[in-house]
Amino acid sequence: MSEKKKKMGSEASSSNSNSNSNSSVDSVVDDVGQCRSSCGYCESGGSTSISHRLWARSLTVDDYQALLDRGWRRAGCLLYKPEMETTCCPSYTIRLKSSDFVPSKEQRRVLKRMQRFLDGKLDKSSDDLKDATDSSGDSQTGNLEEKYKTEPLIPHMESQIDKAVHVCIGGGDLSSDFQFPRASVKKVAPAKRKLSTQGSEDLLFTSSISFQIAATLRRQRKDVEHEKSSELGAGERGQAADTPKVIAEKLGSHLNSLAESLGLLVRAGNGHINFYSSERRVAVVRNQNESKQSSSRSCSKESFSSTARENPELKRRTFEVRLKRASFDPEEYSLYRRYQISVHNDSPDKVAESSYKRFLVDTPLIFVPPSSGDLTVPPCGFGSFHQQYLIDGRLVAVGVIDILPKCLSSKYLFWDPDFAFLSLGKYSALQEIRWVAQNQVHCPSLQYYYLGYYIHSCSKMRYKAAYRPSELLCPLRYQWVPFDVAKPLLDRKRYVVLSDFATQNGGPLPLSTLENFEEQTDEQCFHGSNDIFVGEDEDEEMDEFNYEDSDDELVIESSDIKLPKVEDREELRQAFGSSERRYK
Q1: 3-state SS, residue 349
Q2: 3-class state of residue 97 by DSSP
Q3: pTM for this entry
Q4: Residue 514 pLDDT more than 70?
């Protein structure tokens, strides 16, 4: 590698390079090749995640925009693209046009909650008291997690459900001819616990493994029916025994000991295996009765004090959003450590400053400074940025983003666990969409908000579709297809050439088209397989601790990347296309 290329790579590795430089710098990358690794989405256990990778020494914003529109993403200086036909969890680039965005009910609630907090009408404690049962439920969940601090609670529950599946296989209730998918347990958001129950219990955890097993058995039965079509009625009998409801009841009967050990109740409901607590509302009712008795003895005093609490002197909070070039900031790193340790349960020794820099600070993007009177670059310029959110001067969240000629690309978000009640994951996404809309005045080409990858086969990555109307990138022809067209196809199959089914008006596909479409052949991807049963509201709030904290889950250790000595990059230049834009 020549000294010139080394110099360019060094200059591009941090966006702190001289912003006044107008010299033209080309994109320089090395082809790392195909890589196999374990998957952080399906947790298959093997090296089932397959991607192609490039190491970028320098990269123009135009070239990276072109790569985004061909399914690539970056983590630090590493560019990666899933090999869609072979990887375990196909990842579709998702975007939305900011001017078309329509916030959902839940997203509007997030904005209102933040405004109430800033106006002094809401604080953390009052937000918890908004539903007196929510805080006590979280306390019980926390006590359970403390009980199993050496073995995380949810993985423990998942392993016990897997054992129940094996018991059913051994007892002949389930077929032993093939392998069933592993169980997945989800924590139910506090706001949805009461909506999911009819008695005094609250739903704390749920698993949809019965749906996944039922889908596998249905595919098995269909193959058998083709071979033995003369056996009348066999299909109906098998179908009755293979429903998620029946399977959930069978598994639930083997989980009573697990539930008792955790102080929970286990119950099958609508095909889901649900874990309930019966303690919360009993305690709340008792407290309410005591409160009524007390108020009857001192009615006037209680009424006065209540009125005083409802009308406190409001203390407004200051809120500030700062956009800065990507660089190492000790305060940001301290917040990142707290977030990773508290929210993701990372051990402190693994949250190293070096890995933080490689993942969230280093960037190959060549900064393009703003230019006066030119409507081709926004006032902040193009490049990699950190968007800081401050409340009363305290840093509460940082969004790691790339600002490119056509879009704002969201990369990662970390936030203060003390402010989790503000749903900062959702709030920051709404702010980023708003930022794009506002800056179209300065840069008309800047129209889109890129949310990273949408992974339909992974329930925790489906939240991105809540920002509507969105589009998914066809993995073959690189055409954008409305999500409403893509979803019913992805309900049936993991990998789909989406452009084959794009309609002229962008509307939903005809039912006849869906009926003729080949059904899914994988274990875990089918309609409703990963959905948590918490009600019918499409805008239901997801557990932000698990779902809305970040985009990329790929952790890059640059020391593991062996760079080839590549001098002939003509093929890569052709892949990027020529860059004819020049910025002043």
Answers
A1: helix
A2: strand
A3: 0.62
A4: no
